[in-house]
Amino acid sequence: TYYDYDLNGQVIKESTSSRLGNSFAIETAFKNGAAYKWSNAETGRVYKEILSEDAQQRPTHVRFGNGIEEFYQYDRISGQVTQQSAARNGLLVYQFDYQYDLDDRLTRRLRHFYYKNRSETSFEDEYGYDDNGRLASHEIKQFCINGVCQNIDAGNYISAVAEYEYDQYGNITYKKGVGQYYYESDDPFKL
In this predicted model, what pLDDT tens digit does every residue of 29-42 receive, in sequence order? Predict the structure, then answer.
């Protein structure tokens, strides 16, 4: 892999050769010191372009080479993403809504997926944390199809809950569905 840089030391072109003799290069364009467009150096085809940003320079509208356009909304105080959605040809493809606790940890996520026939599937996730702020649980609470919702409880056939435990070093020691994690006694960070 080879890199070309601009006068500010930013990578403006990344080129890679394959064993078959083919090469591929991506160009990166910058605006106000930040990357905003990635394209094929030979064809000019744009793979990703940030079309708009908010006052804090966070992307609010991004277009991808496959025609998908993503839109982002942020909490005005914490700066965390509160909504992410995507559309193609003006039709909504998905929308995610996020809620956070007072420590800015994700507590709830609602995911909607829309299909060509305009049917919809959605999931509601909840997240819990231990006293040290580490993820302790993740549960898929609800599943909906075209507005008809059902709580996830499949008679112990399907687990929609993940639980986590940690040691004093912050290493994961247990995950529901996986089991125990063990670390070497002489190196507490080595599985």
Answer: 999 889 999 999 99
In this structure, of 10-24, 65-79, 82-96, 126-140, the range with the lowest mean pLDDT score is: 10-24
Spatial CA neighbour of 124 closest among 99, 91, 156? 99
Amino acid symbol at 118: R
- The DSSP annotation for the chain comes to -EEEE-TTS-EEEEEEE-TTS-EEEEEEEEETTEEEEEEETTT--EEEEEEEE-TT--EEEEEETTS-EEEEEE-TTT--EEEEEEEETTEEEEEEEEEE-TTS-EEEEEEEEE-TT--EEEEEEEEEE-TTS-EEEEEEEEEEETTEEEE---TTSS--EEEEEE-TTS-EEEETTTEE----TT-TT--
State if pTM tops 0.85.
Answer: no
